[in-house]
Amino acid sequence: MTSNNSEQVARGPKTSGETVGVVFVGCGYAADFYGATMPNYPHIEVKGAFDVEEDRAATFVEEYGGRVFNDFDEVLADPGVAIVVNLTSVSKHYSVSKAALLAGKHVYSEKPLASSLPEATELVELARERGLLLSSAPSTIFGQAGQTLLRAVHDGLIGKPRLVHASLDMGALAFMPYTEWRSRRDVPWPYLDEVANGCTMEHAGYQLSWLVAMFGPVVRMAAHTSLQLGDKWPTRTQLAPDVSLGFLEFANGTVCRLSIGWVAPADLSLTVIGDKGILSVGDVWQASAPVMLRRNVRTSGKTNAYLAEPEQLPFVIPAAQHRYTDTHDLTVGAGVADMASAVLKGGQSFLSADFSLHVLDVTLRLAAGRGVMEDVTLPASDDEKLARPPVAADTAAR
Ligand SMILES: NC(=O)c1ccc[n+]([C@@H]2O[C@H](COP(=O)([O-])OP(=O)(O)OC[C@H]3O[C@@H](n4cnc5c(N)ncnc54)[C@H](O)[C@@H]3O)[C@@H](O)[C@H]2O)c1
C-alpha cells in the first residue's frame, strides 16, 4: 500500500534485499501490540529491542525474537538495522527519532510524531534531507475495516461525502480500574503518562488518519476542550483536558464533527454521510469491524425511511493471521510493514512524513482548543433556574 505518486526517496541503511532489519526502542505496554503482529510480515526481520529498563527489552525478545541491545548507540551503530520503531514514552519521541535519523535509520514512531510542531517539522526535514522514511502511528487504516471503508468512499458508493460523525470516546477513564491493566508481558498501562498527554494527543490520530486518507487535508477547523473529571483523580495528578470537540473541514469540502474523550461512554464510531447513502464503522480500533452501507432509497416514509436496511460490505483484504487481541483486534505492525515494503521497493510509505506531520498539526490544534468561545450574558431575571452559578447536580453526593 505504499504511495507510488510520491517522489522516490534515496535508500538509507542496507537491507538483505528480501528482508528489512527492525529494532524496537521502548518495550512497554504498547510494544506487545507490535511484537505479536510482526509474524504477519515475512519481509521484516526482528533484530531485537532496547529499553532503558533492561528487563523490558529482555522479556520482549524472549517473547518476540531478536536480541537485547545494551544501549541505544548499539542500535544506531548496527548496520543491519534499517528501521527504528520508536515505542518510547511520548516525551522521548523527538529525541529518540532525531538520534535515529541522524544515524541514518528510517524511523517509525508511535503517535504523536513529537510533542510540538517545531520538533516534528525538524524531524520531517531531517528525514527529507537524508533520504530517510519517517512515519507515525496510528496504522489502523491498514486493517480490514479501514481499507474497506477507504475503498468504498473512493469508489463512490455513497456519492459525494458531505458530513462525518467521528468519535473516539473511550469511556470515563477516571472510573475504570486503570491501575490494574496489564499487557501480555505484564507491563502496566502507563496511566500517568496517558492522562498527562490527554485524550486528544493520545487518540485524535485514530480518526484523523482515516479522515485525511479519505478526504485530503484539513483546511479549516474549530476546536474546544474541557477538563470535566479532574476532581476524580488523585490530587497532584498531571491532567490534560478529557473532553475535546472539533469541527473540521477537509480539502474536498467534506465536514466532520469529531468527539474525543475520557468522559462519555465508549463510542469509537465513524459515519460518513454522502449523497447516495451512508457508510459506517462501529469501532475504528477493531481491525475487523464490519463496514456497513445504507443506501438512499425513494420512499414515502418519514425520518430514516429514506435509508435502506444496512448491508455489510465484503472486506477488501483478508484478516491478518497474527493479531493482538485484548479489548480490540489490533494489527498494529502493518504500518511498520508498509514502511519496510517502501524500503525494499522504493517510494514513500503510506503514512508519509508529511501525512504524519499534518495529522499531528491538526491534533495539536484540537488539543489547544482555540475555537471561538463566546460569553453569554443574561439580563437580570427572577427565574432561579437562570441564577448563577448553577447548583452542580452531584454536589450533594460528593
Ligand atoms: N498504552 C497504550 O494503550 C498505547 C496504545 C497504542 C499506542 N501507544 C503509544 O505507544 C507509545 C508508548 O506507550 P506505552 O503505553 O507502551 O508506554 P510505556 O510507558 O508502557 O512504555 C514506554 C517504554 O519506553 C521506555 N523508554 C523511555 N525512554 C526511553 C529511551 N530513551 N530509550 C529506550 N526506551 C525508553 C520506557 O522504559 C518504557 O518501557 C506512546 O507513544 C503511546 O502513545 C500506547
TrEMBL record:
Keywords: Oxidoreductase. Residues 147-279 form the GFO/IDH/MocA-like oxidoreductase domain. InterPro entries: Gfo/Idh/MocA-like_OxRdtase_N, Gfo/Idh/MocA_oxidrdct_glycsds, GFO_IDH_MocA-like_dom, NAD(P)-bd_dom_sf. This is Gfo/Idh/MocA family protein. Residues 21-135 form the Gfo/Idh/MocA-like oxidoreductase N-terminal domain. It comes from the Bacteria. The lineage of its organism: Bacteria, Bacillati, Actinomycetota, Actinomycetes, Micromonosporales.
